[in-house]
């Protein structure tokens, strides 16, 4: 006679895995609603007056390189980087390097450094954020531009209301739940991924939702300053009550 599994025993069969080890294989389905063409056009609009088509460009936390794939029609020399080899392997983009954006391996500086889709929110402490900004300063040319977007608290509340998402690919089905804790300011995305054999895996992605003014303070400490801060996808000024903002940054 088969023994009925208790809830505890069922939970124990869920294997927790490293960030993006399995989300990488469902990523294209997970992000199918993201308009990368629009995002690439926006980055181009923000930078085209200062950056030439043959400028040296670096994308940080590139993921599957979708953004640079579209942006390369405007800029030829984009190097994509990500700490996750699994994510970069999902792309056929040729100029890509696995590396930690806190410890970049290059021997040259760049005219443009950019990061998108609130990847910066994955940096969980102000100390590490300052280290990151100092690394950007180190690799940014004197007249170069650094641009990145972040999710603010309003964005977390919006996503928590529509917190659950289910999906299916050829080899996997998945569920995602989004939870925001206003006390710790940690936004947690929990992925439960099931393969064809019924094996269940869990990936937990934590993001830090910093106070709006924290970015200005840390950028200043790193020797950088904010040229503009926009409501994402617009040229309207961004504020603390904006859901997502886009920073345009230069060296002092």
Q: SSE string, helix = H, strand = E?
A: HEHHEHEHEEHEHEEEEHEE
Q: What fold name goes in the CATH topology slot of the largest domain?
A: Rossmann fold
Specify the structural class: alpha/beta
Please give the count of helices.
8
- Number of self-contained structural domains: 2
Supply the CATH superfamily name of the largest domain.
Vaccinia Virus protein VP39
Largest sheet: 7 strands, mixed
Described by its quaternary structure, the protein is single chain
Q: Give the overall shape, derived from the CA principal axes.
A: globular
Give the terminus-to-terminus CA distance. Answer: 73 Å
> Which spans of ≥5 residues are poorly predicted at pLDDT below 50?
1-12
Summed over residues and divided by their number, the pLDDT gives a mean of 92
Helical residue percent?
25-40%
Give the CATH class of the largest domain. Alpha Beta
**How many strands appear in the DSSP assignment?**
12
Approximately how much beta-strand content do the residues carry? 25-35%
Order of the strands making up the biggest sheet: 4-3-2-5-6-12-11
CATH architecture term of the largest domain = 3-Layer(aba) Sandwich
Describe the structure.
The protein is of the alpha/beta class. The chain folds into two domains: 15-29 and 154-208, Single Sheet (N-terminal domain of TfIIb), CATH 2.20.25; 34-43 and 52-151 and 211-251, Vaccinia Virus protein VP39 (Rossmann fold), CATH 3.40.50.150. Helices cover 27% and strands 33% of the residues. It is built from eight helices and twelve strands. The chain has helices at residues 7-12, 23-30, 36-47, 66-71, 85-88, 126-139, 153-161, 212-221, and strands spanning 14-16, 56-59, 77-82, 96-98, 110-115, 140-151, 164-168, 172-181, 186-195, 200-208, 224-231, 244-251. The strands form two sheets. A seven-stranded mixed beta sheet has the order 4-3-2-5-6-12-11, with helices on both faces. Strands 1-10-9-8-7 form a five-stranded mixed beta sheet. Helix 6 (126-139) crosses helix 8. The longest helix is centred in the middle third of the chain and has 14 residues, at 126-139. It is globular and about 55 Å long. Residues 1-12 have low confidence and may be disordered.
